[in-house]
Amino acid sequence: MVIRSELREFRACVNRTVSKEIKAGLIALLMAFLLAVTAQAVVPVSPPESRFVWEPEENLTFTWTPDNFYGFYYDAQSRTGKESLTIKLDNIGNRSIPKDCIIYSTTVETATARYNPFGKYSVIGFMGEKYLAGYPAGKSNITSKSGTYLNYLQYISIDDDTSYTLIEGGNLTLRGYVLEVRDVNATGSQVTLSLRQGIEVDTKTIDAGKNYVYEISDGTVIAVHINSVFEEKEAAYVNIKGIFQVSYQYPINEYDRSGMMKITNVSNRSITMRNIFDTVDLKRGSIIEILGGIRLKIADSNNLRVQLYSDRYNEKIEHRGATGSNNRTAWDGLNYDGFWYDIESGNYSESLVITNMTGRRIPEGGLTYTSYIMRVPYAVTKVTGKNIPGTDGSYVTFMLGGKEYMVKNNGFAELLIAHEERASDKKTLVEGETWELGEGYSLTVKSIDARYNPRTALLILKKNGMELDDIMLKSPNGSGYTLPGENGMPKLITYLDAVFAGASGGDMIQLRYTMFVSDNITQIKEGDRLGLFNVTVMEPDRIELKNREPIDLKAGSSINLFGNLSFFVESSDELRFYPTNVGDSQVIPDEAPVNDVPDIPDVTIPVGTSPVPGRTERASGFQVVISLAALIAVYRIRSRRHG
Fold first, then answer.
1. What pTM does this model have?
2. Topology classification of domain 426-517
3. Strand partners, 215
4. Residues 6 or more apart from 344 whose CB is under 8 A from it?
5. What distance in Å separates the CA atoms of residue 303 and residue 344, rounded to the nearest whole number?
6. Domain 116-149+152-251 top-level CATH class
7. What Cα–Cα distance (Å) separates residue 171 from each residue in 168, 183, 199, 201, 506?
8. What are 53-90's pLDDT values in tens digits?
9. Which among 189, 246, 181 has a CA at the least distance from the CA of 213?
10. Considering only the top CATH level, what class is 52-108+253-310?
């Protein structure tokens, strides 16, 4: 890659000809230059078929399944989830999908309840959600119903085998219901339960070892297994292990429409949807809702690039990477949504690559994690085109274990809040309400004026109760707060997206694109330990980690690598695993002191954060450097003068 080779040449030149006193400064200057660019030369490591990003080129047909798209329903324990979406193009030139060439399908499967003695049920994924589709004949131990039905689906609210111990008089909250322990008879091994939905709807006395079941005609089922009852320290308890709840119905009718799709076939085993009425134009920079919060994002680029993503409001979806095996061992931002990816430029933040694996074991040094340092636009600038006053519209950042950090002059600061453009990245507040930002900071809505245009809101930023700033926002508009002495490095950015007038004075505001930066500054150096990794490379444009001990991919295990990055291994004879964002161990090592300045300059030394002038190509908010040749030439001239 051009950038890497010229960087090596530059370093060699510096080492040969420049005195030790100015070496650090020259490398720091080069690093500042590199931080003004994205890692444009980085080639994806993920196999194309494993990605949720499609670049058609010669392949005019592409299919997404739960194996390569996290937004489809998939249950690793029962190995269920048969949703698929296929797009067929006639040609790339006209950038459109013909009618009847987007096909969505999903199929009924059989799953065993998490609490196995409850038996089996029929399950189907539909628009990314898990639904009950009936009960196999004679296979359920909680209902006498049998058969598969797809004219209406029922949402499976709870399927859980967790153990809960409740004291007499205590209660357990279910979806829309509360289960109360009214009486415990430890001598008779019985418990009396009351089910309430505002008012009491059912009461039963159940023997230990039996199931409490509530079932009504609309298909609602609540099953709870009473594991044991006992007394301890003059109090009576019940232990529950196993809960299964089915709640609201979702009617399914042929020719129902969602997004661009219509239901074209409903059988007793499957549902099919197609775009039978509309041609879909793949316009540059457009977002197209395919169905039920599952959308296509089209790159604002001459090259046709399509990203499938899920954007369900008020819902945090667990990120799931493409399913790995003995022959699929590489992930980046194109096949793992837990890594950052920019559709416009095609750049990604991180990669995870298994370079050595025998059976289910990854030996020491066989797993490499790489994070690339990038200059990216603030979310509000990228979406609205508006610069926050006092900034150039972008900042230098990198990701580490699922967390984002801002590169500052004396180290790294974590982004405690980093709202992007997803529909779920919103904060709604009423007048007088306070948003706790973290580290003692809070943002309070002091007043809202929804009577006149532009509508306004006055926000008060405090730390530990002490007022720092009052922020007046006009809708739609953004604002930033900068700590004294940090010119150009905002502490807080937020954008007033909407103001809602309440019928009786209960006005509300909606904030978007909020970014809040930690006060804590951390430095990382080669040799530091991060979870199962050691930091092995610290370059101006990247950080590289390798596992310092073997990793065994045992069936049914969840292995935290570091931070919010883990491997989940399916419980099966076949090796199947994937990266996920579960786990929350500390990312940054305690032993890395803030004032530790290494002898060899790395990314913790002071860096510039302004875009470097020169010949660049604009790529939707990113600075992409064409060549470093001119900079190398300047250093060669300077080195000769010092020689």
1. 0.78
2. Tick-borne Encephalitis virus Glycoprotein; domain 1 (2.60.98)
3. 221
4. 285, 299, 300, 301, 619, 620, 621, 622
5. 10
6. mainly beta
7. 9, 11, 14, 15, 33
8. 999 877 899 999 999 999 999 998 888 999 999 999 98
9. 246
10. mainly beta
